[in-house]
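Continuing the series of single-chain predictions for the mutant panel. This is the parent chain; the variants come on the following pages.
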Amino acid sequence: MAAQLRARALGLPEHPVVVIGHPLATKNHSQVQELVKNSLEELVHGLVSGTANRSEPIRNAEASTRVAEDKKNGSRLQVEGSISEINSYFYERGWTDGLPIIPPLEDLVLEMLQAAPRSAEQSLGKMSPLNGTVTVEKVAINAVMAGCKPEYFPVVLAAVKAVLQPQFNVGSITTTTGGAAPVVIVSGPLAGKLGIHSGTAVFGSGHRANATIGRALRLTMRNLGGSIVDTMEKSTHAWPGKYTMCFAENDARNPWEPLHVELGFGPETSVVTVAAARGLHTMMEGTQETGMGALETLVKSMTAGGISGYYYQRWGASYVVVLGPEHAAEIAAAGFGRTEVKQYLFDNVRLPVSDLKHRGHWGARCWPTEYEGHGDDFLVPLVADPDKFLLVVAGGDGRHSSWFQAWSATQRATQVIEASMAFEVQETT
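Parent structure:
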């Protein structure tokens, strides 16, 4: 069904579809050969006749069509009932993430739009994989549903625009079995003004800005891009980032320049950076008392089997490394700046070919050609270059740091947050 919906989204509703059964990884060589033979026969039939030998009926076709509707303005619905009944109405149509939503009443959407730096009908692009048209108004609807305050809306818009940048490859996040979701990092003065949390329990609950900004992005991806389990969502497990994952830098305890300055923006500029991640790995180091000791333990936590990035450096994915303030202070005291930390990680977060060979994604590896031809002792780096590590200081007290495992078929994207005039006046009065 996913292929049929994708064809429909591309304007090819009658396009022949060949279904290749999953899973493939558990089949032996002869079974794969038989599958290829049968699939090729169907493929030739489809090319010659214009119809497939078989097809799957599109379940919930009405809802699937609504996802990919190419309208610039959001539809108006008249729904009566209690808050609980309205939530049930939205849930049954696949418009929620399973959590309760704020009904997007027209006055609430208009209030959200007052904080927008752009007009309601402006198109921001198409949300893959089902290519729904993303307008400012449609994002506002999803932001209301997520529980955002209007003043958060410029950040939500920036996050949506970031995932729509071509290199982010937003459709791959939905359709991969790898379970990726966007990590939203807010850097700049606006983060503090909006109360985007950066301290204790930074990835946890209880922080409205963090919870609702990340959720608004995910609802937009779900409702305009078709990120739904019954259709395009194919994650084997997924992770809670599929609900929300948004946080800010801990500026007060960051020993280095802010992330947005490192990325080339001015100190007064606020930006959103999004990176696709498959999950969060937390490490602790409470025995070593030096910055070098903390870095050594961080490296050990990133050098294990089953990490897909060791096979896909050429795609340019970024790994988000979040240093707890205590570790960051010790590392800085040991003479490391941002550049030196990333270089150290690049030089040491490596695995020998012998650990990667005939495991993981070995057969589909996509790494630089110069890696080939070396012996089993050759050390393969996790990323293509040091700048593919995105270094952030966040969290509270404690001897902990974390890193997000990247989804390999994507590159990070950064977008400047455009504050509306109404919001700017509100901030200065």
